[in-house]
Amino acid sequence: MSESIEIxxxxxxxxxxxxxxxxxxxxxxxxxxFTNDERALxxxxxxxxxxxxxxxxxxxxxxxxxxxTNKTIKGPFVVTEVLDKPIVDADEExxxxxxxxxxxxxxGSIRDDGRFSETHVDSRRIQPYTPATx
Length: 134
Prior knowledge:
Layout: H1 9-28, H2 36-50, E1 61-64, E2 77-87, E3 103-110, E4 116-121, E5 126-128
Antiparallel strand pairs: 1-2, 1-5, 2-3, 3-4
């Protein structure tokens, strides 16, 4: 059971400022420049993001979650199929980032050459697409 913790307005603002600065560093700096404490916080943030679940259906428009891209394909994507049983590539070595990755959704996108292409991905890495505001 988790406990509720009271945080003052000043502490909330301080934490928000810290996480905004950390997010800015994550976008603008190379990870090798991060301190161990920053790496720990970022790893925890990415773990939490990866474990936020979404439900998708064919036709949904989706994109990669921030910093959870593990393929070179660019989004946004259209969901073309949601698999009942994930595909797990048995040929990957244990040291590979793809080892035992559950590929449970198929996405389609327009490649750089203009052709439509589909690929299987781990749905924990994607989120509903949010159009850019003008």
